[in-house]
Every structure is written in C-alpha cells, then in structure tokens.
Amino acid sequence: MAGNRSLGGEQGCGKSRHAQRVVCIGLLWVVAPLTVHGQEAAPPVQTPDPCTEARGLFAVAAASACPPAPKSRQVDAEALLACEWRDAVTTQHSLNALKRLTSDGKDPAGPNPKAEQDGKIARAVLDELSAGFPGNFAVLGLYKAALGSPDESGKRTLDPLPNFASLLATANTLIPQEKNKPVNERGENASKVLGCTDQLIGQLYMNGPAAKAKTKESGPEAIVRIQNAFKQYSLFGIYSLVDAEWHSDGKEEQKAADAINMEILRAAFKLDPDELLKQLADRM
C-alpha cells in the first residue's frame, strides 16, 4: 500500500515533487543526527591542566628549611629568597621588599629604577625580609651581606650584590636543570611553566586582580596597568604582576595557592620574559 512506502518513496514525502524534496530534506536533517547520537559516544579527551603540571616542577620549600647550605653569597641569597617567597607565612615580606626595591613606595605605586641604590631603602628591605625569620641570625647575616650591611641610617659598610633586586624578583625553586639551559633548549618543562602563566594571565583578565574588592579594578584595566609597568621598568612590572595574584586577606589555603602561582610567574619572567610580555599583550 502507498501509505506503507518508505520515507524515500514518492508518496512518503509529499504529494508533489517539490514537496517531496523539501520534506525529505527536513526528514534527513532529523533522522541523520539520531543515527549519530544513537552510536556509542567516544569518551571526552582529557586536556592536562598546564598549572597542575607546572607546579610539579618546583620544589616544596618552607621557611623552616632556610637558610640553605652555604655555597656563595649570591647563590645562598637567591635560595633564601626562594624559600621566603614560597612559604605563604612569609610571602608578604618578600612582596613588600620587592615593592620597596622597584617602586616609589606609594599607593598606587610607580616605578623607581634607582631604589636599589638607596641605602635607606636597603635597610628597610633588610628589616622586611629578616622579619620573616625572627631570631634567625644566620638568615639575618646572609641578608645583611647581600644588601651591603646597611646600618640604621642607611649607610652601607659592605659592597652589596649588584643585582639583588633582580634576584628577589626572580628567585624560585624550579629544578636547576631548566634554569641553566638556553631558551631554545628548555623543552617541555619550560613550556609547562609558560603554559601555566598564560592560564594565570587569562584568569587575571577574566576575574580581575586579587585586590579588586579594594581597588575596584577590572581585569582588562589590570592587564593594561601591568603591561605599562613592564614598559616603565621590568622589575616593577613583575612586582605588579605577582602582586595582582596575591590575596593578602585570604585564608591559609588561598595564600598557599597564590604563593606557588607567584613563583611560576617569577620563574617564567626569568626563563623567557619576552614570552611573558607577549601573553600580556595578547589580552590587550
């Protein structure tokens, strides 16, 4: 019987050829997907979280493990700074010290490339950093030697490390094998670090800085401000970037997560500052 013909039959899709063509096309659109969806779906591809992978490349450092085994003034100072940054209990001291060494100290801060040359600022940085290790004279002695042993008036009695501000801005616990390779030989570990920073910068753009409740600054505004800071003085730029990640009023778990994210950002700045700047520029 005509009524029992298939969908593709002359009468099954409409009385006229035109109607048959239109209705059949519509039926194909309805029926074809049902066939596809009726098949067993393939399991979704799990994309690795770049930050989860990147965090595994860094040592677990704590203030209780400092100071490090003595090697040299610069190596020991860098290792000690990495410890102080990484421990969420002392991260704020490191951030305050970096602000002192790279900015005019105002709020909001502006760049000051000459801050490192000021003995009074060096003394303030010494007090700030050593406050993270109260009563630890080994730590105090190492910081004093690195900063030129400034007295209360700011007068230095030793030659300071010429690059202390840079050490403070980049100190991290990334496995040493990656630190010492040329950029084009760092392989997948460096890619994981930079993949994570791209994700963190994307989150900053979407969600705004950690202090947005106080500053009312949006994510796009923060990205523009931070990129301008890099243009003015690169060390002030990295201070501005890690500061945007730090929840100063956050709970212990939040601060611990912030500390490792800040470390990844500083490591990326040391590994490949041009790529880090490109990631910022991509959000402009």
Describe the structure.
By secondary structure, this protein is mainly alpha-helical. The protein folds into 2 domains: 68-170, no CATH class; 183-281, no CATH class. The protein is 59% helix and 0% strand. It is built from 14 helices and no strands. Helix 3 (73-86) packs across helix 6 and helix 3 packs parallel to helix 7. The longest helix has 21 residues, at 17-37.
Please describe the structure with a list of short key phrases separated by commas or semicolons.
globular; 14 helices; 2 domains; 284 residues; disordered N terminus; 59% helix; mainly alpha
* SS summary, helix count: 14
Query: Would you tell me the structural class of the helices and strands?
Result: mainly alpha
Termini, distance in Å?
A: 68 Å
Specify the biggest β-sheet: none
Please provide the count of β strands: 0
Task: Summarize the amount of helix as a percent range.
Answer: 55-70%
Order of helices and strands: HHHHHHHHHHHHHH
Which percent range describes the beta-strand content? under 5%
Mean pLDDT: 83
Rg of Cα set = 28 Å
Spans with pLDDT under 50 lasting ≥5 residues? 1-15, 18-36
**Count of distinct structural domains:** 2
Shape: globular
Oligomer: single chain
Q: In terms of topology, how is this protein built?
A:
Layout: H1 17-37, H2 50-55, H3 73-86, H4 91-102, H5 119-130, H6 137-147, H7 164-170, H8 176-179, H9 187-207, H10 212-215, H11 219-232, H12 234-245, H13 252-271, H14 273-281
Helix pairs in contact: 3-4, 3-6, 3-7, 4-5, 4-12, 5-6, 9-11, 9-13, 9-14, 11-12, 12-13, 13-14
